[in-house]
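2024-03-11 09:14:02 DEBUG pipeline.ingest accepted 1 chain
2024-03-11 09:14:02 DEBUG pipeline.ingest length=543
2024-03-11 09:14:03 DEBUG pipeline.predict start
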Amino acid sequence: MTIGDLIAVARHHATVEVSREAVVQERILRSRQVIQRAIADGCAIYGVTTGFGGMSHVAISPDQAAALQANLLCFLKTGCGERLPEHDVRSGMLLRANSLARGVSGVRPELIERLARFLNERVTPHVMSLGSIGASGDLVPLSYVAGALIGSDNGYLVDMPGETVTAVTALKRLGLEPITLEPKEGLALVNGTSMLTGIAAGCSHDAWQLAAMSLAAHAVMLQALMASGQPFAPFIHDHKPHPGQRFAAARMVELLAGSKFIRTLKAERECQEGAVPIQDRYSVRCLPQYFGPILDGLATIRKQIEVEMNSATDNPLLDPASDTSYHGGNFLGQYIAVGMDQCRYYLGLVAKHLDVQISVLMEPAFSGGLSASLVGNPQRSVNMGLKGLQLVGNSIMPLIGFYGNSLADRFPTHAEQFNQNINSQGFGSAHLARQSVALSRQHVAIALIVGIQAVELRTRMLTNHCDARRLLSAATIPLYETLYALFGKSPDPSRPLVFNDNEQSLDHFLNAITADMAGSGRLWQAIEPLMDRFDSCSTECGS
């Protein structure tokens, strides 16, 4: 399963089906038989014939083994905070099914089939955003999925299309009976990294898209600055061949190709001394070197998430071939915790760079003569241009940077009588990453508005009209046109996007952009060739 597969199911409701291959079904059944034999033979298996956590020394008799699983859901029903978004819960359900289908967890096939049925029927349990330390997996969040899945009682709520009902009601509507958990099954449902990994997969997808859109926004802003194309020449990056750096430089070459704004090497050689700086500021000239490690890092995170997505993450794991139960720690979400810490850090770097580029464009001394704060109509003295927009950007960027602080190294060590004396905090780290993504969408939206306004003002300086399509590169024209369409406008040759302050509300522009990036995705379609390149980078970049 890839991140793309997960997004298709979680957000776009693609159909899920459990494999009917004999080898898969046999593996699931044989792992179940390991549990049954162990109970019959009186063997000790954690969470089956013993208590949980620091109480694993407590022996559980065979006649209490099923009650132990039901009780597990009872004492874990402690979630609090706001509800997780539907798509994140669906992601966790999908990954729990995928983990159990590996056939080393000892559950009946019916439980896996029911997870798939819930996904296909759009039955989504209510899961809270607080309650997992990412060790022993996502015990509390997944317990709400498990309780809803089996129809434990009316205390578990689910969303069905258009309404909220109890899990018991949902089962009746689907023609399903409540399930009594058998030994190991409750533990197998809740003991894993599925929820935190599902959230992380969505964040990784979104961060990857935002990195691409940020490069596109830079391409528009660089054209407004009449930047040199020389810093992106392959010759430079062949002599410092980091994969991400080379990829970023190549994409900028493609994004800027054919632009009538960008200075060519020939033009620079012919320019008079002192007329134009021989080289641009670092925010332009070092863009590939700056973005390179971001892209390499995000690509590495994607690969690690996909390994976790396709892993068995509960404990103990059962080997039918040797009739052995292995007690280990695949439930620790450390890869995801560290990855999401890094993802938030990289989003902070992206925001920092965009913020610098915005500030250059807003100041005439640095922008090459564009109006202060990109005022559209300088003849009206009360116009302040995009000053307020920059203030909002300055309020968002530090927050994104703050979210880049690590969480994985800040765990308490006393959970479950010191049984969980290390933990990943992967769920919390992924939860913070979702918030960082939402902030980053707002910040990228600001950069796009600034870029459009700036490139139109530059067009007016060069041609006495404001329709930038006549000078923009071919790769950035669809983005330019799509932004206007989202605003319900068309480019006006006689005036830039923002002419007088009192003629529009910029918050409407921001909301249109962020809603599109989170929903319908017309902006992603506008940079589809770039997104296709990013798909290849996810395998080429990183470690």
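2024-03-11 09:14:41 DEBUG pipeline.report The longest strand covers residues 80-83.
2024-03-11 09:14:41 DEBUG pipeline.predict end
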